[in-house]
Write a structure and sequence with these properties.
The protein has 201 residues and is mainly alpha-helical. The model has no long low-confidence stretch (mean pLDDT 89).
Length: 201
């Protein structure tokens, strides 16, 4: 029998299969991924070392959808650009977020997405020890925005005893674009305040 012209498996196909599986089931395990791709589990291990690498490949595949930020000299623009892009991206892949936020980045290509932001922050006067904290704050903000506000608890007793909370519920209408710009302003404002106190952590 002639060999297929294209291999049945590749790291790209594994990553795409993992994303599909998570979007359908909320998780990815090696046996289920093999079944989803129509191969034996042993075939996966010819390309990857295990579940952690599969998740990292899925994360890279998702981050490849982010257009390169390029060289940005103003840290405010870099922060705003990254937060907007990640929020849009994560909103398309909500179910995989719990997985990619509990595994370690290992792909250099995935890390390279953040390099222009790191560089802009250094040029903007932030200390090297602050950089990962800033980017982590952007990441978690984007993830939270993408998942939206949880459904609020409400009852007559709550309305009677928690008026401030009740007002927050009655006046909240979640819109992703509006919430994103609110968060952009909040994050940049907080970082501006941090820069104004250079001696603080």
């Amino acid at each position: 029998m002639a060999r297929p012209k294209t291999p049945l498996l590749s790291v790209t196909r594994i990553a795409e299969g993992a994303i599909e599986l998570v979007e359908n089931t909320g998780d990815v395990q090696m046996v289920q991924l093999a079944r989803h791709l129509g191969v034996a589990p042993s075939s996966l291990y010819s390309h990857v070392t295990g579940r952690a690498e599969v998740i990292d490949l899925a994360r890279l595949r998702i981050l490849e959808q982010v257009e390169p930020i390029g060289s940005v000299h103003d840290w405010r623009d870099a922060v705003a650009d990254l937060l907007r892009r990640l929020t849009t991206l994560y909103a398309r892949h909500r179910r995989i977020l719990p997985l990619i936020f509990t595994t370690t980045f290992t792909s250099e290509r995935a890390l390279a997405v953040y390099e222009p932001v790191f560089a802009a922050l250094i040029e903007g006067g932030f200390r090297p020890g602050q950089l990962r904290l800033v980017v982590a704050a952007i990441e978690f903000q984007a993830s939270g925005l993408a998942q939206g506000l949880p459904a609020p608890a409400m009852s007559e007793h709550i309305r009677e005893t928690l008026p401030a909370y009740t007002a927050s519920v009655d006046h909240s209408r979640y819109d992703l674009a509006t919430a994103t710009e609110f968060s952009v302003n909040m994050v940049i404002g907080g970082l501006e305040a941090l820069r104004a106190r250079p001696d603080e952590p």
